[in-house]
Design a protein that fits this description.
single chain; 437 residues; alpha+beta; Outer membrane efflux proteins (OEP); four-stranded antiparallel beta sheet; two-stranded parallel sheet; 6 strands; 61% helix; rod-shaped
């Protein structure tokens, strides 16, 4: 596409991002980028700087951001929990001596009976369900990490786009400075030959000073944004230069397509997983409410006759165990809560999605109008105004107003591309799908 009179360098489209989350379960969305490389504003030599595309920035963030390291420890904690719940109760060994130390036939140990026995509780079903419940609970760590990684990647993408836009704003500001300098030189010549009054030259010098202040302010803003971007992976803000193609509107599907993709939002997946955790805990509570049979076997020695005999027994709790009834009721209520939260979140995300699509449509219309109508007309008007001012047919105020009008339209075009890229990032963050520019 033609950028009209925006004097910026076109850079090839950056390669599409790919990478993986740090979890074994979920793969990281692939990110494609179209952002414009601005001229470097650092004192460091270009040859000493690393060319950084969005895919590389996101990859560094996912590899080095400390917030993602938290999930490694959480996963280790759950692994320890799974191991712990897999350990059942140990068998009991008991020794009992009876009928001794009394009187008569039971005086001393002559009539004593000694029993050695071992007892255990049947708990295989409980252990299996405890392990299953712990594993389901551990699975939410992967989804929580996916949510965090998605948010961090989107934040990196926003900062990347903003840095590119601010570089272009600085480029336009420098162009405005040069335009103001040219105006001062033109007016100075007219003042010297008596064609323009002195106050017009003074006005032009004020305009130049204001443009220089604007550029200086933009330089500070750009420096801050680059610092925030590099902080996503702990790098140096001056150790890279950004590469991409900014002036390219992203392709957006229909409302129905985007609503269908909304189901992939990891926040919805997390709620579904929490419901599964509650279901698993309900099943565990029901199993634990069942009576536990305790078996025992042993051998008994009769001191009086020096004989041995085997013993065996079983112990079964009487009545119905209601100790888990309250817990089960609470977990059932939790399931209903997760269902309600999921329905509310789906409605909220659907509304946000529709609003974002309308904003994207508006940004597309603004870009098209500026490119095809406003900027071409202002370019023609600028050329004619310059000739009219040289011949004295147009005053200074009218001439500079047309010059500034075109600069303003170029700034509006840049802002429109910034808006549509940021809206598209948010759209894909909501749907949990591939992030592209």
């Amino acid at each position: 596409m033609s950028l009209r009179d925006i004097d910026v360098q076109k850079i090839p489209t950056a390669s599409r991002f790919y990478g993986r989350f740090l979890t074994p379960t979920y793969s990281v969305f692939f990110v494609g980028v179209a952002c414009l490389l601005a001229s470097t504003v650092n004192a460091q030599s270009v040859s000493q700087q690393t060319i950084l595309s969005l895919d590389q920035a996101v990859h560094r963030t996912l590899e080095q951001h400390p917030q993602l390291g938290v999930f490694l420890h959480r996963r280790e904690a759950y692994q320890g929990l799974v191991e712990q719940v897999g350990v059942g109760e140990r068998p009991n060994v008991s020794v009992m001596v009876e009928d001794f130390g009394g009187n008569g036939d039971h005086n001393g140990l002559g009539g004593a009976q000694s029993t050695l026995s071992i007892s255990w509780i049947t708990q295989n079903a409980r252990i299996d369900q405890r392990i299953q419940s712990a594993r389901v609970a551990a699975s939410q760590v992967d989804i929580e990490q996916e949510v965090t990684a998605l948010d961090l990647s989107a934040q990196t993408a926003r900062l990347f786009v903003q840095a590119l836009v601010e570089e272009q704003r600085l480029t336009l500001a420098k162009k405005a400075i040069q335009q103001a300098r040219d105006a001062v030189a033109t007016i100075q010549k007219r003042v010297e030959v008596g064609k323009s009054p002195e106050f017009e030259r003074l006005q032009a010098e004020v305009e130049l000073a204001q443009r220089e202040l604007e550029a200086e302010d933009l330089q500070h803003v750009l420096s801050s944004t680059r610092y925030q971007l590099a902080a996503q992976w702990g790098g140096e803000r001056d150790g890279f230069r950004l590469e991409g193609e900014l002036f390219k509107a992203p392709a957006v599907g229909s409302v129905d397509q985007q609503l269908a993709r909304l189901k992939q939002n990891p926040a919805l997946t997390l709620l579904a997983t929490q419901k599964r955790i509650a279901e698993s805990e309900i099943e565990l509570a029901r199993i634990e409410a069942k009576p536990q049979w305790q078996f025992s076997v042993g051998v008994r020695r009769f001191e009086a006759t020096d004989d041995f005999g085997m013993i065996a027994g079983v112990s079964v709790p009487l009545g119905k165990d209601r100790s888990s009834a309250g817990k089960i009721r609470s977990l059932l209520a939790k399931q209903g809560e997760y269902d309600s939260e999921s329905a509310a979140l789906k409605r909220q995300l659907g509304t946000q999605l529709y609003v974002l699509l309308q904003e994207i449509n508006h940004s597309q219309h603004v870009i098209q109008t500026l490119q095809e109508q406003i900027i071409p007309i202002l370019s023609s008007a600028q050329a004619q105004a310059g000739q009219a001012y040289e011949t004295g047919q147009l005053g200074y105020q009218q001439w500079t107003a047309i010059l500034n009008k075109k600069l303003g339209a170029q700034q509006d075009l840049l802002s429109a591309f910034e808006a549509i890229h940021l809206q598209h990032i948010e759209l894909q963050r909501l749907t949990g799908t591939t992030l592209t520019f």
